[in-house]
Specification:
Blueprint lengths: L39 H11 L4 E5 L4 E4 H16 L23
Antiparallel strand pairs: 1-2
Length: about 110
């Protein structure tokens, strides 16, 4: 309907009380969160660099520890290897693995 017609919807009109509004089912966090446009990978990379001397994982069966620096080095090597596979943004990569030390970086 044309904007000036008598039957046109008024954008400022009160909503019908019988209709459910999206506002009733919307939850808000107490702070504004803006995700980093560079992505989650960039965030994880920077955190591993910052905490490089901290323990990233502990393997109870073998009493082994791995620092974030070691994990980061292996993650970068894995990423470099994957980049040689000519994958596109539409490809899907799936992990299927037993629980072991290398699982953290796959």
């Amino acid at each position: 309907m044309p904007p000036g017609s008598p039957d046109a919807e008024d954008p400022l009109a009160e909503p019908d009380n019988n209709e459910e509004s999206e506002e009733e089912y919307t939850f808000y966090t107490p702070f504004k969160f803006e995700p980093d446009p560079r992505g989650l990978g960039n965030y994880l990379f920077n955190r591993m660099k910052k905490h490089r001397h901290h323990i990233a994982q502990y393997i109870a069966d073998t009493d082994e520890e791995q620092t974030y620096a070691e994990l980061l080095q292996r993650c970068v090597r894995t990423a470099c290897h994957i980049s040689t596979r000519n994958l596109t943004k539409d490809d899907v990569v799936v992990l299927c693995s037993y629980n072991h030390k290398e699982s953290a970086l796959q």
